[in-house]
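Re: that chain you flagged

S.,

Sorry for the slow reply, it's been a week of failed gels. I finally had a moment to sit down with the sequence you sent. For the record, here it is as I used it:
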Amino acid sequence: MDALTRRAAGRTAFPAAWGPRLRWLRDVYGGRILAVAVIGYAAYAASTLGFTPARFWRGLEHGGLFVSRLFPPDFASRWSDVQHDMLESLEIAILASVFGILASLPLGLLAARNLMPAYVTWPVRLLISVSRSFHPVIVGILFVKAIGFGPLAGVLTLAVASVGFIGKLFTEAIEEISLKQVEAVRATGASFPNVLIFGVLPQVTARFVGFSVYQLDSNLRNSTILGIVGAGGIGGTLLAAFQRFDYSIVCAIVLVMIGLIMVGEILSEQVRKLFQ
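Prediction finished late last night. Pasting the structure tokens below so you have them in one place:
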């Protein structure tokens, strides 16, 4: 065998001989190497962002001082404003959830790849993706600039956010259904709307209700933020209290928000139980 042949044979034998060893090294040390890389990058990112232990402990001290200034909460002096704006936040959340869910149901059906052809699903999926690409605060600023200050901007903002989130979940739920029931309904000669009503919706109704209730809870939380950008709700009152350094009123508003969200969570659980 000449030198060229021996060199070629060595190149072909090398992977076969070292393949098991390389796989063993990957299985044993691959996770450790990845963990070390993540920790190393986290340390590098912390150093570039100015994160230091001393600064962290100073932040804890300042946070403790701030929390001590929140108490006792003041429910009396501006209770009428807090009550009005909190009810406005609730109305914004409910209206946005209703509009968003009503729009998400047909969009979810059109985006499901097991029901629609590709030329229908891709544009709808793109629309749903764009709807959830931006934070509600950014969308709220756009609507405030477009239609002015007030709760209408908040309703439209959260409706767009609802379409992005609920539309995606509706689509995924429809794509996970069993097609046997759909084919059975089609075999009876039913029209496409009847196939949807009797073959698709019964399989996903419980999940739809769960998604919708969760979105209502999410919109209630987000509606309290949108007031900061002028889209109505309790957020504006909260920001004004911060700017006046009325921390006792800030505490009262935060406690009211927590109480309202807890009540919404209890009601959500009861609604889910009805459809289980």
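What I noticed first: The domain at 78-274 is CATH 1.10.3720.10 (MetI-like fold).

Talk soon,
D.
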